[in-house]
Write a structure and sequence with these properties.
mainly alpha
């Protein structure tokens, strides 16, 4: 997978305009970024807990060994790609707002709801 493909997938969004729940869009933007980080941290914590339990069950691992670890070029490249995808997910709202500023014809879900209600 190329970096461009990974970034495009990370920023994917549903059709239509993004619904906003707060009057201040800046608050919405900060909340969206914060929640993306929260989600990523929750997944990381679960995986780390699993890893620690597996290592403990197998007899342990010296923490100094982890501190001395140096990734191979391939591992460093994988980490670099992951970091780019992660940042794209965290900053997704910023990317989508930039795309929405140039898009025409998108309908916001809240506009559809008003039309259906009326």
């Amino acid at each position: 997978m190329s970096i461009a493909d990974a970034l495009a997938d990370a920023g994917a969004k549903p059709a239509g305009k993004r619904p906003y729940f707060f009057a201040d869009r800046e608050v919405e933007r900060v909340l969206a970024i914060t929640m993306a980080v929260v989600q990523e941290l929750a997944v990381t914590r679960a995986r780390l807990d699993t890893l620690e339990r597996v290592i403990e069950a197998r007899g342990g691992l010296d923490r100094a060994e982890i501190e001395r670890f140096e990734p191979s070029a391939e591992a460093a490249a994988e980490r670099g790609l992951w970091l780019q995808e992660y940042l794209s997910r965290v900053l997704r709202i910023v990317q989508q707002e930039a795309e929405a500023a140039t898009a025409t014809g998108d309908v916001a879900s809240e506009d559809v709801a008003v039309e259906l209600r009326d």
